[in-house]
Queue: 3 jobs
Job 1
Amino acid sequence: MKIENSFPGKDVSAEDLRSKFPLAAKQHPTHQTIVNVGGAEIGGREIVTMMGPNLVENSDMIFTIAKWAKENKVSMLRGGCFKPLTFPYRGEKYFETGLEGLKWLSRAGSEYGLPVVTEAVSESQVELVAEHADMIQIGTRNMQNFPLLSTAARTMKPILLKRGFGASLRDFMGAAEYILLEGNSSLVLCERGVVAPHTHRATSRFLLDLQIIPAAKEITHLPIITDPSHATFWAPWVKALALASIAAGADGVMIETHIDPENAAVDPLQPLNLEQSTDLVGALKSLADVVRGIN
Amino acid sequence: MKIENSFPGKDVSAEDLRSKFPLAAKQHPTHQTIVNVGGAEIGGREIVTMMGPNLVENSDMIFTIAKWAKENKVSMLRGGCFKPLTFPYRGEKYFETGLEGLKWLSRAGSEYGLPVVTEAVSESQVELVAEHADMIQIGTRNMQNFPLLSTAARTMKPILLKRGFGASLRDFMGAAEYILLEGNSSLVLCERGVVAPHTHRATSRFLLDLQIIPAAKEITHLPIITDPSHATFWAPWVKALALASIAAGADGVMIETHIDPENAAVDPLQPLNLEQSTDLVGALKSLADVVRGIN
Amino acid sequence: MKIENSFPGKDVSAEDLRSKFPLAAKQHPTHQTIVNVGGAEIGGREIVTMMGPNLVENSDMIFTIAKWAKENKVSMLRGGCFKPLTFPYRGEKYFETGLEGLKWLSRAGSEYGLPVVTEAVSESQVELVAEHADMIQIGTRNMQNFPLLSTAARTMKPILLKRGFGASLRDFMGAAEYILLEGNSSLVLCERGVVAPHTHRATSRFLLDLQIIPAAKEITHLPIITDPSHATFWAPWVKALALASIAAGADGVMIETHIDPENAAVDPLQPLNLEQSTDLVGALKSLADVVRGIN
Amino acid sequence: MKIENSFPGKDVSAEDLRSKFPLAAKQHPTHQTIVNVGGAEIGGREIVTMMGPNLVENSDMIFTIAKWAKENKVSMLRGGCFKPLTFPYRGEKYFETGLEGLKWLSRAGSEYGLPVVTEAVSESQVELVAEHADMIQIGTRNMQNFPLLSTAARTMKPILLKRGFGASLRDFMGAAEYILLEGNSSLVLCERGVVAPHTHRATSRFLLDLQIIPAAKEITHLPIITDPSHATFWAPWVKALALASIAAGADGVMIETHIDPENAAVDPLQPLNLEQSTDLVGALKSLADVVRGIN
């Protein structure tokens, strides 16, 4: 089969596949990369779950969540330490925990045998993050910060690349190609919602794009997961969109979990509490078993 | 519980629920309408499947599809007879079958015990459609054609209301309210894709909005289904989005099925053939069983 | 020059121009229709201004505005009598004035020698509107209500066709073609804002698309105007966008003018008062003189 | 007048103005910053024009354009030396000229007494760019690359901040605040088109948002210009949108000018040639004279 003939009317052309992102392009229908992050396999038969708080607020909370995660067979622990903020001023409750948070996260992961993923916001942080985390997250606002992409890639750590909230699939592939070109093929894509005219909440502006899942599966061998927490910005809708992601063929989900959502330092409407998270993990497991059988 | 206090930051306010669409508004978390269309129940524990061609091209094809549908336990037969076309000129292959098509559809439904749904494009057609079909579809381009909504509602036939491709959830509720106000409460909503900046195919411009599923479930008691065929405009992505819809909590899906997609009179890239449709029906059934258990 | 060769990469292809909307298509770079509405010429060297209230609330207000309009050399009087409402229930202040309003509008126009334009919402109203108005407006929600388009066209009255707020330029041309095909070539297009991710006001959701002006000028001979009042939904921004429309090459603007905006029966944030309207008319005149010289 | 009371229904709240971007917020209706870039004043009574090639391809072309610019009273010379590319591979014609290009640009500016603006793509380039250019441009893909913003700001050079193509006005203000917080108040905003459902060309995806001009004028004292070349991606539409920008109240425009557009190394559909540029400069001048009088 010639992949290159199969894209009439696609935003991404056969010529793009050959010359714009040859490394990210799928070479054969069965071509699929599996990224191993400290034992968690992303892109294989099992879905992955990356769960944890938006911000690693203190040591206790991240150890509590890590313990819960381990008990519930969550694949990876996520948590923000360095964070890009829309505004330079922080709210009353907010405090960035930086390197200290990174160490808490790292220790919590080690203690419970969970690989950890966290974001690097600037080139100068990359080394530090690479030292303490198992996977480096590039955030939506930095998807086209090409020097950061290349610097992160050169650590040879697995990379989680979030789609820019205004970026096309073609832009997304371009960003992926920068990472792959450094010889780092441990790359996972993440759809996290895009700007759209209607999002059904006055306080949010993102719509989870699930058409990108089959679209990405057609053109690239890279695994792709979704982040329904940031897309919906509203805890009651997270489960529906997480399940939908897996049903659409996503290789996993990244979910915000907090021990006390109402008192979260950032975005309190968004995280699930532990009880809701446990319910979601169970639901995802049941669903994934079926989806595996029917695709 | 007071529903009206639960919508801070929602596009739809508590005031809207009370004064703009009191009939469509959910009055209690368990408030859920079940619409019965000739035996098919929409909004209950079982999901519904409405399948059939974009255009009822001839008698043979609709009987073949009806037979297949019956054998595969599809809930309802869909097919277009009268169609709103973007341009007044028809392509070489295209021909509207109108009343003749309506009779073929109706007979095929009767023959195989399947309720049928088809679109009414103008007020003057409503009576005719009501006479021959079990459910009247209002298309996306007519969602705010209020005289048509009211005329269709007054037949007391069940109505399938497709969301306008530029319409907000609030607009959608307004259109629903026009129908309910006529005393017709057999109303089903249908998400069919909205205009969005990126859709991943150069020839399409719609993105299936699955956030509307939990959003609608919060504010209205009306059932809601999706149409992944029109949203994706690309057969290979239909299964992924149909499964995602059910996982997100939709009450069913409407799917284009054709006996020979390549030679379809309209939109040949969109329909599934019978084999693909059989596979999809099986997958939906397996998925729905699980989703029912985990929600 | 062959128009058909000049559209590489255009949403509208040369094939569309030939086969989808041959009547609306521009046949030569100088091909430009001028629509005469009771003496007001739209599409010629002079810009047109259509001003008046969203709703013709009573006789006094429309006569006051008509008198003001005449004194300020406004081209046409606009005013709603029949209106499509998102919800079936009207607010406290709101009342549709229907035929009575239509007569007030018509008499005010006659008294001051101003052609009038008003909307027809349903096929059954078309005759009545045609009898009392000089131009029939088709609203954004009805742009693809094809029976209404054809019915309105057959009155042979000039038609003002507003772009659907989710419609593409190609959709817009399709709707225009339905009207032209009835032998009615007195057709004016109107851009009134489209749904977009960011509109800078929480209570509005439209963005005035000014790229459509040069785009339309390339492919169609039909005049095109804009409606900055509905697009911005905010009186303080109307002047900026009205001026921008003319600078972009629009053939005119439609503006909401009210004698007492704060107490307007509908959308009180939107209309200009008479003083602001006078200022705008003067500004538009000055601008148009310059724009004519530099294009 | 209390600005803070004047934003009911605005995406940006009074609370945002006080606590999220107090430095960028307008404190009084007449509060307006004028940024002086080597003699060119941005934000004052005169509009500014920044013209030049997408890429400074060689010494000859930039000197030719600089000479032309001086003769035509263009305010500033623009030209790319370092460029963020969507894909890591360059086309046949493309070559980044980097430091060499920067020196050509700088010398051409000096020779003809024109201040120059060029983009810095990474923190490590900032010093170099600051040394050779009069104004540092932050590109759309880097609008939320906060370390880059702060680094550029600390050079105390004037900054041209382009809006992210998916960013809200609120996001834009947040990015501006990062720059102002470094004590650098020589900041100019630039609207360059945002992602939108319809853009009227298959090969482009941006819509110039002119509603942001009056919106920005309401909430911030910072000057704002537009870039119609990148927004439209199509030379024949640039003039219309440039004129519209000035009519809407923009403080200037940035335009791509090339000596030989057909053979441009990047985006050949976009630049104006010198003849077209001369025509545009004249038209802008005539228009600005009128707009100044009517606002």
Note: Confidence is low (pLDDT under 50) at residues 1-6 of chain B.
Job 2
Amino acid sequence: MQNFIDPAMKYFGSEITERDRAIFEAGISLGALFHQFVGMPLKKDKKFIENTQKIISESISTQPFIKSVEVKIDFDKLESHQNIYDYSTLTGKILEVKLIAKYGKTLVYSGIKFIEELNYPLMYIEKIEDSTI
Amino acid sequence: MQNFIDPAMKYFGSEITERDRAIFEAGISLGALFHQFVGMPLKKDKKFIENTQKIISESISTQPFIKSVEVKIDFDKLESHQNIYDYSTLTGKILEVKLIAKYGKTLVYSGIKFIEELNYPLMYIEKIEDSTI
Amino acid sequence: MQNFIDPAMKYFGSEITERDRAIFEAGISLGALFHQFVGMPLKKDKKFIENTQKIISESISTQPFIKSVEVKIDFDKLESHQNIYDYSTLTGKILEVKLIAKYGKTLVYSGIKFIEELNYPLMYIEKIEDSTI
Amino acid sequence: MQNFIDPAMKYFGSEITERDRAIFEAGISLGALFHQFVGMPLKKDKKFIENTQKIISESISTQPFIKSVEVKIDFDKLESHQNIYDYSTLTGKILEVKLIAKYGKTLVYSGIKFIEELNYPLMYIEKIEDSTI
């Protein structure tokens, strides 16, 4: 089914497909990203925000079967500071993520995006592809 | 495809199935649980550990499409304190989780378990069921 | 200066007093509490909120030199759910903490409280006492 | 007592000194740093580790009254990967921090360092200075 050795495969039910695994790994990494980095203090500085996006992306890319992670923090929505205490933190309202998981030949394009209508930082799957086609 | 209204369905690709969604939601919640609660200071007290298991379970059960969460912290592996600084924290080595996600009619039985062989707190899918059968 | 052995005392500058230590430990534990538990999913259920307050309190009480921790989550401010995605999480806006640190004979009464005027979950020291008086 | 306006001063007991405040803020930021960033996935790459150190430092420097933060992740102790699952995460064992807090004229030199003897990532105060001397 795949051309690499996954040492954990035996811990998964035998009916679990490549597609299932790619989706599962995408979900895990989105949940991990969110709960690891939300709450992080931020400053309204273009260079700092760019570097933070890059570090979060590279950190989550180390997780198994994650092919790429793109992170965007909405600079314009970072609050300007009224006083010394009023710094910003990373929240679901200003975070946008695109994450591609790959297991075997299956690619899952997923992401996080704040949906006003739901008042919720939704984790979603945009599409699923067979990379051999 | 399902007998409830999912207000987020339109944000998912049209080829995404109930099975895909149930797996995705299981992954998200396992990743969230791990990165939210690992690092939490623990004391070696049976009642406290029982209550902590219950709270983590109930907290994660509030997430969308999570049917049940069972959390087990390995009491015997909690280090005994050598000095005032040497308290325990929740780590992947002492945490075991069983989580059932349900989307439409599909049930995903998933979990977290530390695998010595991999030196890793593995998130896995045990089985996937159609609840109507 | 004190009637217990603190195995870490040698790592502190010789001019550091009991009062300094008690304040430092209070600060550490308030910072830890906030960044460990903020982001935790909550449900609007009296019993669950009571148990969550108790677990956070007991967890942080295991840290060195923490005498007591009282946690209050503002039940009335927990948002009611508009849809399946719209669950609440613990934020600085609904969290109130009172924490007493004790080092040697010095007691530090500190806390966390959201201050509207500052738009900030302020960590503060209410008073410092010599417990022998 | 100081030549800036601290809008939160009225929330602190009147007996709280500049020294007390500087120590308290150091403690808060060390506790916050630890519980925010521990658990973060890391890869064994010099450039990535350097950038991660810088981002953590800049993030925590945004907190009130923090003058400087130096972060060192022990590159040599980062585990080399045995398999695809065996990535590293930030732990108290590989993290070293030096943080200077300044309130009014008082400077507090503090830090985090893993102490083998205590089996503990100790938060300590090295020295306290009056910056006007």
Note: The longest helix of chain C spans residues 18-37.
Job 3
Amino acid sequence: MVDVIEILKRYSEDVNKEIDEALNTLEPETLRDASTHLVKAGGKKLRPALEVLACQAVGGETEKALKAAASLELIHTFSLIHDDIMDNDDTRRGMPAVHKVWGEPMAILAGDTLFAKAYETIIKTADDNIPYERVIDALRVEVDACIKICEGQALDMEFEDTFEVSEEDYLNMIYKKTGALISAATSAGAIIGGASTYQIEALTNYGKSLGIAFQIQDDYIDLTGDESIGKPVGSDLVEGKKTIMVIHALQKANPEDHDRLIELLTAHDESIIPEAMEILNKYGAINYARALAYDNVIHAKESLTLLPDSEAKNTLMKLADFVFNRKS
Amino acid sequence: MVDVIEILKRYSEDVNKEIDEALNTLEPETLRDASTHLVKAGGKKLRPALEVLACQAVGGETEKALKAAASLELIHTFSLIHDDIMDNDDTRRGMPAVHKVWGEPMAILAGDTLFAKAYETIIKTADDNIPYERVIDALRVEVDACIKICEGQALDMEFEDTFEVSEEDYLNMIYKKTGALISAATSAGAIIGGASTYQIEALTNYGKSLGIAFQIQDDYIDLTGDESIGKPVGSDLVEGKKTIMVIHALQKANPEDHDRLIELLTAHDESIIPEAMEILNKYGAINYARALAYDNVIHAKESLTLLPDSEAKNTLMKLADFVFNRKS
């Protein structure tokens, strides 16, 4: 596990340099500070690493992938800032959320700024001797992911008010909310690296499956993980979130347990956690989620089969296992 | 005046078609409704018209300019939705603001969606046989304007808490907040139309001066105009806004009037309007603003001198006068 974290960190410095360069000219200072706050707070930098590795896996140069990598991190950070306002979350990456420090108006603006800066940054890839057509293709992939992120967040918000969420609805929502940008990362990396059509498809599929596994694992960690990530265990249950575990249990449960689970999930109180967990376990919901995440990890790895062997390909394989095994 | 309004409407239908096409696939329905709300409410469609006219003025085809035109309107609408949340404005274009109908979270998301859709739409210009390099150049201009819009809004918010705003500060703020996107419209139109470097520069300068005149006129209308635009006359004074009139009066006033004007502008009460107007008039602030707007209109028109004569050029000339003479 340690070496994967090292890999994720390997490109962090270069990517941060690109991001700093993009943001340090912003005025006024307040906007600059609000925009850089979360970037400085760290984060795993999973998307930039995936983008660079995908570029390497098709024989592309790392240097030329860095601007798109920074761009993906800027998009991710923009979406976190706006999500935290919408979900009224107080902390992020162990620090107060942007809107908690600068207020909602400045946080909205900081998100918008990072969004625009993301595009400015990927467009600069054209200065790295990447053909214009390829830059446009990479951009198209990123823009498409941004639209999906918005749709995914809207679906997630809509699911808050209903228990009529099917597994298909859930998978569509997490693909859009989380999978699309992770998939855009490997896809853009492949495009910038000069990949063939089938290589782009392979790496896009890898990213899509990885992204879905990533989100299922996120939901799993919330139920079982430690509290070091800053969220109390079971907080999704208290919030009544429609995770894959909840959807599966509601689908399998007898009428009595079904109605009781809904009762518990609408109480919005910490005291419901043990009983809700019991119902989830009774219907094998946690094992089901693990299996579904694992299927996606296998699918992600299989997608890479046709790529030539390389260190980057190996690392992408390891990253898939990391996503399944991570505890935070 | 009537024929200019007709000109603005001339391309509205085509532009709306592009926008509808961009938005009608959005899911869920709530996000689609919130995203299309303001678009359906109308608006002058000044930016799309400017983009198409700039394209025509350099000999480009109208058809090929429509996607970028739609893209500019999407950016404008995104910024209005987010501004209304930040400024806590209840109405826009005679309708309730998006956040008043769907709540702040969905309004943030609707803005983000339009922002992403704007880029998706301009990228599609590549499908209209426009060389990739030119699409990237047009995109660069739009992205740069988006960053400036965010900076301009942040500066505007910052000015709320201080009376130490110079005319230079003000002009920088309104250029970023309003001028940059209007200038991006004429610049992108020229680029897509296949303009030479000096033609692009001429049309960019035209847009910049026009945009500044437009914003000064907006401030002027607030003080003198009718209430048919949905804002009470003098509302900027009640809000204590640092318009060019206020900045000029504070700069010229004797210490007594200076301090009294600040007192009035910090009262946030409608009763201050007559006395504040009196001080503005005493120091010729309103005439000063008119003269400054007029200078910018003249400069905008002069920028077009080097362009070949055409109907589009004539219309751009008329539009400059329209901006100076409009009452709403």
Note: The CA atoms of residues 251 and 258 of chain B lie 8 Å apart.
